[in-house]
Design a protein that fits this description.
heterodimer; A: alpha+beta; 13 helices; B: 332 residues; Elongation Factor Tu (Ef-tu), domain 3; Rossmann fold; Ubiquitin-like (UB roll); five-stranded parallel beta sheet; 7 helices; 32% strand; disordered N terminus
Chain lengths: 355, 332
Amino acid sequence: MTIQFNDETFRDDYSFKNSQRAIDRFPFPFHEDSYMYSVNMEQHQGGPSDSIYEKRFDVDEHYVAEMRDRAMVLADDPLRCQSLPHMTLAGWDLLELIMVSKSEDYPALFELHRDGDNWHWINKPLGIDDHFVFMDETTLPYGPMEYITRQTQGDFCVLDQRDENLWMDAGMITTQADWSLDFDIGMNFFEWHAPVPLAHEKGIFIRALKFLLSIQQGAPARRLNWTMTVNPLLDTSPENYHKWGIQKTSVTPKNLGSKQHLRVELQTFFRLPRSNALVFPIRCYLISFQDIVSKVKWGRRLHRVIRDLPEELATYKGFIDNRPMMLEFLSKYDDGLETSFGVWPEEGTEPPLQK
Amino acid sequence: MNVPPPNSTAPKSTGAKKIAVTVSAIVRLNSLVTRFEFKRCDGELFPTFSGGAHTVVEMQDGDIKRRNPYSLVSDPAEREMFAISVRRDDEGRGGSLYLHEKAQVGDQMRISFPVNLFSLDLRARKHLFIAGGIGITPFIAQIKQLDRTHGNWELHYACRNVELGSYVDELTTKYAHCVKVYYDENGQAIDLKRLLDGQPIGTHLYVCGPKGMINWVCKAATDAGWPDAHVHNEEFLAPKPGRPFAVRLAKSGLNLEVGEHESLLEAIERLGVEAPYLCRGGACGQCETNVVESEGTFVHRDHWLEDDEKACGTKIMPCVSRFEGKTLVLDR
């Protein structure tokens, strides 16, 4: 299918919006009426047609605008993209993975022509047409990781694997849920997860690490994570907290439906072949509360999840202060009827709202 | 260990796909070691891999399905074929004998995607390799990888005699300044103390070979004050035969008898029960299985479980470990 790329912003006037198609395919993360951490991994080997799970790297209507926003973040703060010296090989692995995947999955948008190490890459949506020599950094305008992640939606953590642990040794991080690559660079898996509440006690990270260490070539995995964001902001970084933190106080009962966004991350994990590193793309999808409640099941369920979420999690996810206002809005879309199991909206079978 | 989430959006899958291959060449390197080359049946290219990776080769030997891990010795950048080198083990359980005596060019087999449990530490300013006998195999691909990226490396390779020096000619011709070969029967030995003493800061040490050699090198490095994180070794165990024993699989509701020459993992697979694995040699931890109930003695042989875990008898690695006694019930 052809994609119409939106001309929109994730800052200042916030002209970001989701089309009906984008709402229909939004990755709603709650499969039941409550939420607790789990190692909710599954294979990343395709999914239902036109869902965000179908392709290895989903390209959607926000692509061009997201890449424009990333370029602006990097212009202001080049440390959002870093790669320790031993991670260059992993950068080439990532470049190859993305170029091959996108050219196979979206042949109308991307082309890759290879003649030995002489590669020709065409990115039509961004108007890029480059010839370069694979594994020769001098033939690209940036390092391989930066080059390809300036052209791919989502943040990218490139993790070195050694000593039975994973190390945050490279990344492109401009659309993050309040964590900093510049702070975490060089940390291991337990160090960079140290601030997360409750999950350590549950042994979640030990099990998650074990799973990630054994991810194999040819068997990528995925999971969803979520948080809340006021205004459709991609760059909710600690570096810029002084700019966006204050916006949380701008929510009123009147504007909440359009201002309050559910932020869902599709996290995928791929073993990189030459470096044996692991790449961890974190793709951010935003949806306003008023668009969520257009799906009756999602409206009912979101109310119950937010209402019953443990206080520590609501605090960690940064919406404890606004929770009462969010519940006031969402309660109008919860009539107490049962919801069906699973994440899909089930519009044909879910009973209409009785309120 | 991971139940797919109930919202599962993914097609059902049982981990990495296998690759169907044809044996494309069989090259006898010497009286003990033979090289096997594979091409893909579907005509596609193989994935690239990292030096030190292995593949698990599935062979149908009559009624028995054999699955043995072998280091890849082809060039990681070579996408047309994969190669392994197999040492004939006359006392082994038959996988290497099957390859040596029965495998023919044109045979079809299935192999796993490459898995690397012995990868280079790419931070190293220098890679110092010590190989003994067939332990040369992971280094062959690592050297090819480092050669391409202009890495700094050095190989010390001990063989029994000139005849059994697999890959010696290729290595000493191509990389004369980086390779030193020692022949046991000529009384040559690696002067380890001196070798370790002369290494620049930032060197990583890798050893692969017989168990005695691995222990010798690791101890010498520790004694010389090397940090543990700079010393790497790989030893895959082959499952050892043992007395047959009975097992009950609680989740599957099945009873089985593990034969003298098969591993517990193989017996579980024989019944068609899905069991995860990566290395099949007690090193990767993937097949770790919880014990529900037991009355008897565990014969733990893996490198994975901690000593206290082995002592308390609540976990077993079915790829190499066995059991002697009356009752064993597994959570599988």
